[in-house]
Design a protein that fits this description.
Elements lengths: L1 H11 L1 H14 L11 H13 L1 H7 L2 H17 L4 H26 L4 H36 L1
Helix pairs in contact: 2-3, 2-6, 6-7
C-alpha cells in the first residue's frame, strides 16, 4: 500500500518536516500572523502530527479529527491567527506532504505515477488559491463593518 509507505517516511522524518514547515510559515505572507506564535510550540505540534500520520490517516475516527481540529481552531483564534491564515497553514502542511510524496515517487517511479501526481498537485493548488481568496472576500464585509463602528 503506497499511502502507508509514504506516511511512514513522513513519520521517520517528522522533525525535519516540521522544521521546514515552520520555516515556511514564518516566511510566507499568507501566514504572517504565525510569527507571533512560539516557534517551539509550532514545531512540536507539527512534528507530533507527522510522527503519527499513519494513525491520523487510517485509524482516527471522524469525531477525533473533528475534536482535535476544532481545538486547534480555538487555539489559533485565541492566538490571534486570522481564519484565512489558519487555513493557509493547513494547506501548507498538506502541500508539504505532497512534496514529500512527489520526491519519493519520482525516485521510485519516474513515469506514470509522477505525471498523475503533477496533475493532482496543479488542481489542488488552483483550489487552494480559490478557497483562500474566497475566504478573504467573505470576511471583508465584516472587517469593513468593524472598522466603521
Amino acid at each position: 500500500m503506497v499511502g502507508v509507505r509514504f506516511s511512514r517516511i513522513a513519520e521517520e522524518r517528522s522533525d525535519e518536516l516540521a522544521e521546514a514547515l515552520v520555516e515556511r510559515l514564518m516566511t510566507t505572507e499568507r501566514t504572517a500572523a504565525y510569527r507571533k506564535v512560539d516557534v517551539a510550540e509550532l514545531r512540536g505540534e507539527y512534528a507530533g502530527f507527522f510522527r503519527s500520520l499513519t494513525e491520523w490517516l487510517l485509524y482516527r475516527h471522524a469525531e477525533e479529527i473533528e475534536e482535535n481540529c476544532a481545538a486547534l481552531g480555538v487555539r489559533r483564534a485565541r492566538q490571534g491567527i486570522p481564519l484565512d491564515q489558519g487555513v493557509s497553514a493547513m494547506l501548507a502542511c498538506r502541500d508539504h506532504l505532497v512534496e514529500l510524496l512527489r520526491r519519493e515517487s519520482a525516485e521510485m517511479h519516474p513515469d506514470g505515477l509522477f505525471g498523475e501526481l503533477e496533475f493532482v498537485v496543479a488542481v489542488n493548488h488552483f483550489f487552494d488559491d480559490a478557497i483562500f481568496y474566497f475566504m478573504r472576500g467573505y470576511q471583508a464585509p465584516r472587517r469593513d463593518a468593524a472598522q466603521v463602528a
